[in-house]
Write a structure and sequence with these properties.
Length: about 450
């Protein structure tokens, strides 16, 4: 009997440990505070299959939280995927009432779990003492975080604007608030405003400047959006690049292949130059360029619709969809050649490629179709054969039949009719006299 109870308990644990499978009945009330982490996937998607064990680990990490972890086949339940404007696979969304956030970072257990926890909130956490302040500085030594410094009793105009902005950008950074008195005096004496807003990143800090119009939501949002990225971060594919689309800057991307041992020195030199330009010479380039690097060339290959030779340097304008490539050999790259290239882009003298013209859009459609076909083939050759090969074969057979079928020869019948109509009395057959007499 004990064994039976043990088996039932184990079965119950297995059932409960499963990720929730959703269908078209899934709907979230705007007033419902239940948090959901939902993966929208396609059965044929190779990236989705690679994410499956990682996503299960995410579920295990969040099992004791209030977040419900679920997944939905977007190819079958299109109503829900269309509602949330899912356009690629896999797509991971955090949904809580009318709050929806899209994960655009690395597809690792740590990154996805941290994304869910950020979205769950609270968005702005209070630092109560100096020791906690130093812990926060140490914890985010390799990332960025924003700190509102001012009285915690009552809401200042800056705090009101900051809270509104952070609710919108909850998953993009870390946000804190504290009173001025708990901070180190050597730091406080350099602050220009009270209350104020400061961002810590790259071992430095930068203060928000209200501007001539005073404290406005647009200026606070611009400050947070502009400063939430590190000076030279690593991008997680296309999601990381699209996450920078609100910067209104050109993105300077260095694409490397860390597995290529022959390019290790060149990769390192390019990264070192970009780091120097984005930090030491921040004043010269920060207003117009955001530097970044990635080790996945797929995103940049998609932008250029070519296969880039690595390492590569590309500058992409997220607003116009134009991109720029250096004319010099990257083997000879120096700070001077790099900065000259960026200055030519800034003054408009550098040649640009891409854009959103008609021919470019046609080329993009053809390229996207090819990539979609290839992705399905890579995931399952038999599925690709069934989806594309079989219809192509049927169409080919029909076309061949229509083009090569021999026409019916009506010439003989037509000739016989003409002969009967034009026959002379002499040529007419003679009737039997007996038959005529009877008539």
């Amino acid at each position: 009997m004990k064994i039976i109870f043990w088996l039932i308990a184990c079965f119950g644990c297995v059932v409960q440990s499963q990720i929730i499978d959703l269908d078209d009945s899934f709907s979230v009330d705007p007033e419902d505070d239940t948090p959901w982490l939902v993966e929208f996937y396609a059965p044929w998607c190779g990236h989705c299959k690679r994410l499956e064990p990682i996503y299960h680990q995410v579920y295990l990490d969040l099992e004791k939280s209030h977040i419900k972890v679920a997944k939905l086949d977007a190819t079958r339940h299109t109503t829900v995927s269309a509602k949330y404007e899912v356009q690629g696979f896999p797509t991971i969304l955090f949904i809580q009432g009318d709050r929806v956030f899209k994960h655009q970072g690395d597809r690792t257990k740590e990154a996805i779990t941290e994304f869910a926890k950020r979205a769950l909130g609270p968005t702005i956490k209070v630092i109560s003492n100096g020791a906690k302040y130093f812990d926060i500085r140490s914890e985010h030594a390799d990332s960025s975080f924003f700190l509102y410094i001012g009285a915690q009793q009552g809401l200042s105009e800056l705090m009101t604007k900051f809270a509104a902005v952070t609710d919108k950008l909850a998953v993009h950074s870390y946000y804190y608030s504290c009173e001025r008195k708990i901070l180190p005096p050597d730091f406080v004496k350099h602050l220009q405003h009270d209350p104020t807003l400061v961002v810590f990143k790259d071992r430095e800090w930068y203060e928000y400047e209200p501007g001539e119009s005073g404290v406005t939501r647009s200026s606070v949002e611009a400050f947070v959006a502009r400063e939430r990225h590190l000076a030279f971060p690593k991008l997680a594919g296309g999601g990381g690049l699209s996450d920078m689309s609100d910067l209104r800057k050109k993105i300077v991307v260095i694409v490397v292949n860390d597995a290529d041992k022959e390019s290790v020195k060149l990769n390192s030199r390019m990264k070192d130059i970009a780091t120097m330009m984005s930090t030491k010479y921040r004043r010269d380039f920060h207003a117009h360029f955001q530097f970044a690097w990635m080790d996945d060339p797929e995103t940049m290959n998609t932008i250029t619709m070519t296969t880039l030779k690595l390492p590569a340097l590309i500058v992409f304008d997220t607003e116009t969809q134009y991109y720029y490539l250096p004319e010099f050999n990257l083997v000879d790259i120096t700070y001077n050649s790099f900065s000259k290239f960026l200055n030519e882009i800034r003054d408009g003298s550098a040649p640009s490629f891409g854009g959103t013209g008609f021919l470019q859009r046609v080329k993009r459609i053809a390229y996207d179709i090819w990539i979609a076909v290839y992705s399905i083939y890579e995931a399952s050759a038999w599925l690709a054969l069934l989806v594309f090969g079989l219809p192509s074969a049927v169409i080919s057979i029909v076309c061949y039949a229509l083009c090569c079928m021999e026409p019916i020869d009506d010439a003989e019948d037509t000739d016989d009719e003409n002969i009967d109509e034009n026959a002379s009395p002499v040529d007419a057959p003679v009737k039997d006299p007996k038959h005529v007499k009877n008539e």
